[in-house]
């Protein structure tokens, strides 16, 4: 069975479910066993682990000849953000107060790379391009994390505002965001999971659980969380969110029981990280 997502995305799902808030380190060999169920090779898992250690997302611990993996504080922050996206923020914005966050910027050609990085970060943070050099997102957003390390200074202006006639909020949504593309992603999720037997080729519910959570987190991370009142009444995110919660509940117990038999954990961590 070929995985639907990159190994690192699957690894974040695995760690968010089976490592976050547990205070344990997980034997790397048992992680390899879990990912084999997803069709991910041992080489790809080891490469993913090495990259995440290098990026200070995982720490290696030694116990005898075994290498265990523990979360760093940076990884915990990333995983907790993902958990908020999944279980608190959700896919449907029903509480919008009419406020928009505006980010305006004008960068010289000599800062072309910084301009590209800024645009990429704005998209990730739920912003859409309204017009040249002006991006918007619904709600009041703290963009300090978006701007960190880019050193843009006076080249960027951040404001909050509300639309006034002749500007309509619905027009802003239509101009700045590709509504149809967002809807297509949710429909693809439904085509995969809103069926009688999702992923019949998957070996068990542990594999399905990790694929489900990975698919859903990628969806909600790409969703700008637009106000529901300005989206079509048949907006597919509504049904998709219901399906995710139903499937997550369905897989939770059998997946955890299986994980308990597969995972070799070191309670309380393993002291100082090692280099092995």
CATH C-level of the largest domain: Mainly Alpha
Spatial strand order of the main sheet: 2-3-1-8
> How many strands?
8
Q: CATH superfamily assignment of the largest domain?
A: Winged helix-like DNA-binding domain superfamily/Winged helix DNA-binding domain
CA-based shape: globular
Strand content: 15-25%
Named CATH architecture of the largest domain: Orthogonal Bundle
Q: Oligomeric status of the shown chains? A: single chain
Assign the structural class, choosing from mainly alpha, mainly beta, alpha/beta, alpha+beta, or little secondary structure.
alpha+beta
Kindly report the CATH topology of the largest domain: Arc Repressor Mutant, subunit A
The structural domain count equals 2
Domain Transcriptional repressor PaaX-like C-terminal: 177-258
Domain Transcriptional repressor PaaX-like central Cas2-like: 94-173
Protein name: PaaX family transcriptional regulator
Domain Transcriptional repressor PaaX-like N-terminal: 6-74
Structural write-up:
- There is one protein chain.
- With 276 residues, the protein is an alpha+beta fold.
- It folds into 2 domains: 1-95 and 178-276, Winged helix-like DNA-binding domain superfamily/Winged helix DNA-binding domain (Arc Repressor Mutant, subunit A), CATH 1.10.10; 99-162, Alpha-Beta Plaits.
- The protein has 10 helices and 8 strands.
- A 4-stranded antiparallel β-sheet has the order 2-3-1-8. A 4-stranded antiparallel β-sheet has the order 5-6-4-7, with helices on one face.
- The longest helix is centred in the C-terminal third of the chain and has 27 residues, at 236-262.
- It is globular.
- The protein starts with 6 loop residues before the first helix and ends in a 9-residue tail after the last strand.
- The model has no long low-confidence stretch (mean pLDDT 90).
């Amino acid at each position: 069975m070929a995985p639907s997502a990159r190994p690192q995305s699957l690894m974040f799902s695995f760690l968010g479910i089976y490592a976050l808030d547990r205070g344990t380190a997980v034997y790397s060999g048992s992680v390899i066993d879990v990912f084999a169920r997803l069709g991910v090779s041992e080489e790809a898992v080891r490469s993913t682990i090495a990259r995440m250690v290098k990026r200070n997302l995982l720490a290696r611990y030694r116990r005898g000849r075994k290498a265990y993996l523990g979360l760093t504080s940076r990884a915990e922050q990333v995983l907790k953000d993902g958990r908020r996206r999944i279980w608190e923020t959700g896919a449907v914005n029903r509480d919008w107060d009419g406020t928009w966050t505006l980010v305006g910027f004008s960068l010289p050609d000599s800062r072309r790379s910084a301009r590209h990085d800024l645009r990429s970060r704005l998209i990730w943070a739920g912003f859409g391009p309204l017009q040249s050099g002006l991006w918007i997102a619904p709600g009041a957003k703290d963009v300090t994390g978006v701007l960190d390390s880019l050193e843009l200074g006076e080249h960027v202006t951040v404001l909050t505002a509300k639309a006034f006639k002749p500007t309509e909020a619905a027009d802003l949504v239509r101009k700045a965001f590709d509504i149809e593309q967002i809807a297509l992603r949710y429909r693809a999720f439904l085509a995969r999971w809103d069926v009688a037997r999702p992923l019949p080729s998957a070996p068990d519910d542990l594999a399905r659980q990790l694929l489900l959570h990975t698919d859903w987190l990628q969806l909600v991370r790409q969703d700008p969380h637009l106000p529901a009142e300005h989206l079509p009444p048949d907006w597919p995110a509504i049904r998709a969110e219901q399906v995710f919660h139903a499937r997550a509940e369905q897989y939770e117990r059998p997946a955890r029981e299986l994980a308990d038999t597969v995972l070799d954990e070191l309670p309380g961590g393993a002291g100082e990280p090692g280099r092995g």
